[in-house]
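cache lookup: miss for this entity combination. No prior model stored, computing from scratch. Input as submitted by user K.M.:
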Amino acid sequence: QLQLQESGPGLVKPSETLSLTCTVSGGSISSSSYYWGWIRQPPGKGLEWIGSIYYSGSTYYNPSLKSRVTISVDTSKNQFSLKLSSVTAADTAVYYCARDPPDSGFDYWGQGTLVTVSS
Amino acid sequence: EIVLTQSPATLSLSPGERATLSCRASQSVSSYLAWYQQKPGQAPRLLIYDASNRATGIPARFSGSGSGTDFTLTISSLEPEDFAVYYCQQRSNWPRVITFGQGTRLEIK
């Protein structure tokens, strides 16, 4: 059974960079033709796609966040990561990582991690 | 950017009733439309992909239909565990861009 787990600081100061890692277990991140994605959800609000990385390393970002987002993959650790720069209070959200098949929806999700932006 | 509009915002029904949720796209998404269920404190769960395909383990009372710009999620007979928030999501592959609708809250009447 594929499992995903987010990890990283739960509190980030305004103007700093938010960094999260998703560790995949139960399957190899590079063995199949999948995307791996990040989605966030501000408290009490809806879902927003942040971006996805293909197993080969190609990246795709939400145009509204593109200037601040970097997603990378570390196949040796079976992990992929998110960096979001110049954060503000509006970036406070639960951040999810998920598997993003090219011909389906997000089918496996992490449990989510709350990141609060505050001084 | 493709915008997905879900209606109604809130739907109040009783167990055993039929639920019909709508998702309209601002331009055609072909059949690249998925539906998710989210309960409080949980990650979303994939229900339907490519407009009408049930994901693994999803009960047959959940069905999806539509293509182009108008899509529907139907729950044929509501079970107590079906009361949750439902989101639609579209994808385009070249380049890959994904957007979600704002959600429909299905509540017990």
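stored under new cache key. The first strand of chain B starts at residue 4 and ends at 7.
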